[in-house]
Amino acid sequence: MNNVTVLFVVLIFLVGRAGGIKPNRGYCYGTQCFTVFREPLNFSAAQKQCKGQHGQLMTVRSTVSHDVLSILLENFAGEFWIGLHLPTGCPDPADKLRGFKWVNADSESDFTNWSPNFDSSCSSHRCVSVSQKDEYKWTQEPCEERVSGFLCEYKFDDACKSLPVAPGEFVNYTTPIGFFGGEDMLSLPPGSTAVRMPSETKFICFSEQWLQAPWDCAVNKGGCEYKCADDYSDTPSCYCPPGQTINPTNNVTCGVEAADDPCLTLHCEHACHRYKNSYACTCDHGFQLAEDGRSCVDFNDCTDQRQCPGENFRCVNTVGGFQCVCKDGYRMSGDLCVDEDECESAPCEHECKNTPGSYQCTCYDGFKPDPESPDRCILYCGFEECPAECDPNNKFECYCPKGYVSEERDGGDTFCLDIDECDFGYCEQTCRNTFGSYVCSCFPGFTLVSEYKCVKSEDTGDSGQSTTPKTPSASPTVPHPGPTRQPSGVTTGGLVGIIVCTVFFVVLVVFLIHYLLLRKGKMESSDALKAAESEAHGLQQVNGDG
Ligand SMILES: *[C@@H]1O[C@H](CO)[C@@H](O)[C@H](O)[C@H]1NC(C)=O
Ligand SMILES: *[C@@H]1O[C@H](CO)[C@@H](O)[C@H](O)[C@H]1NC(C)=O
Ligand SMILES: *[C@@H]1O[C@H](CO)[C@@H](O)[C@H](O)[C@H]1NC(C)=O
């Protein structure tokens, strides 16, 4: 990989800054640039436009800045906003800046240039404009006025000094802020391009240096007139449409191809790469040369981790390129990926907590996240007994967690009691009750299978005793009214055992009584039925015979 690639990522950002309305003129010196927009906007809309390009309304704190005004506004009639205003109160004639402040909220200035007629009006927000006609004297205006235009300033690190030129040459500059310039430019912001005429050699300003084209293909096609190829990644190269060839004086523009060009015989799908006296096919940026040496295939640009350097960005490969999108759980806001508040769409059954890139569901007391669907909550006790979850409008409508049974106590409160599933003999050998469930295990020399069966272990050296926690398959979730009994004054462990036994016993007795009654009833009714049947049959027979 080209070792300046990572630096170029910064350039992509710089070059991408231009956009929106374009300045009509610009000027740079040192690490600052200034622009003029002939666009009638009020003061706040003008400041917004400057800020949109990472600048602000121009401050005129020194005679040098004052001189820049005359460069920018030469031949431009009308009033232009500068970044000086009085947000509240009345002008103070005793103060150097008359109580006004620069847009970045300070009031430092080595220079003032107030218009001689003192305007003491303080009925509204006051802002300052300058005009060529008034020799750039500071004039107060109501800020909502749409004057002829406004002036912006921008500060840069790593600006380049203007490109040296030989006699007979001149340079055209294009800045990332959207204005063009010539020889009068003293410095250029990073990301500016320069074309040195008449050779048409091209340069880009990066890190105080002018780099000659073709540079990294990802930035403005490497500066190529037609297209840029970089599958020989350490040497990006420009190529031209069929029938044309790269101009060797600048390596970026296209000229008429010679008939004996060795590239003609290669039949390259995209481009022919020349290096000293050798020729080979090469591919557009984002493509890779196929095995046949002439076709091009899409290259996964995302293998380079540096492609999407912003925090929380993710790279998506596309045909011939890539896209930077936000990671899951983040959304685009301006040029940043910000955390999305998933809780706004209420994904959790109970409580939701937003986390960077995700969210977390929690459950109210007495519930736990459902292991099968973590956004939902299920009843949970974790003790031998817990108060039941009852409908506040209907205290007879109560619910207990899985593996618990409800019980109404004196005073009308309903409780959930753990069921000792071990009493049901679900396990083949050993059973251990847990709150809400049970665990089967096997004697030494046996292995647990299907969670409850024990089979003789093949390898007796193995402990053979394995356990697996198990939730009861027959889920005794009993809504109210459940089996209601009087609690006895015994320990909770014993109590549960007794309850389950009693429940069993009661059920058995009820069943027995019911069975006996049914039998008795059946016997009685079957006698009656038999009589009725024979009667009917008799009649039928009589009828049939008759
Ligand atoms: C300034 O202009 C913008 C758009 O032109 C408008 O939305 C805004 O309300 C104006 N502000 C003032 C203070 O007049
Ligand atoms: C360079 O600037 C000159 C005048 O400033 C202009 O005539 C010429 O067309 C420009 N050339 C390019 C390539 O922009
Ligand atoms: C054009 O590129 C070749 C190598 O590819 C180099 O030798 C030559 O100096 C370059 N020409 C210019 C004007 O930079």
UniProtKB/TrEMBL annotation:
It is a single-pass type I membrane protein. Residues 460-487 are annotated as: Disordered. InterPro entries: C-type_lectin-like, C-type_lectin-like/link_sf, C-type_lectin_domain, CTDL_fold, EGF, EGF-like_Ca-bd_dom, EGF-type_Asp/Asn_hydroxyl_site, EGF_Ca-bd_CS. Gene3D superfamilies: Laminin (2.10.25.10), Mannose-Binding Protein A, subunit A (3.10.100.10). The chain crosses the membrane at residues 495-518. PROSITE patterns: ASX_HYDROXYL (PS00010), C_TYPE_LECTIN_2 (PS50041), EGF_2 (PS01186), EGF_3 (PS50026), EGF_CA (PS01187). Its main location: membrane. Keywords: Disulfide bond, EGF-like domain, Glycoprotein, Lectin, Membrane, Phosphoprotein, Proteoglycan, Repeat, Secreted, Signal, Transmembrane, Transmembrane helix. GO terms for molecular function: calcium ion binding; carbohydrate binding; transmembrane signaling receptor activity. Endothelial cell receptor that plays a critical role in regulating several physiological processes including hemostasis, coagulation, fibrinolysis, inflammation, and angiogenesis. Acts as a cofactor for thrombin activation of protein C/PROC on the surface of vascular endothelial cells leading to initiation of the activated protein C anticoagulant pathway. Also accelerates the activation of the plasma carboxypeptidase B2/CPB2, which catalyzes removal of C-terminal basic amino acids from its substrates including kinins or anaphylatoxins leading to fibrinolysis inhibition. Interacts with ITGAL, ITGAM and ITGB2. Interacts with thrombin/F2; this interaction switches the specificity of thrombin from a procoagulant to an anticoagulant and antifibrinolytic protease. Interacts with ANGP1 and ANGP2; these interactions significantly inhibit the generation of activated PC and TAFIa/CPB2 by the thrombin/thrombomodulin complex. Interacts with PF4; this interaction enhances generation of activated protein C. Interacts with HMGB1; this interaction inhibits HMGB1 inflammatory activity. This is Thrombomodulin. It comes from Parambassis ranga (Indian glassy fish).
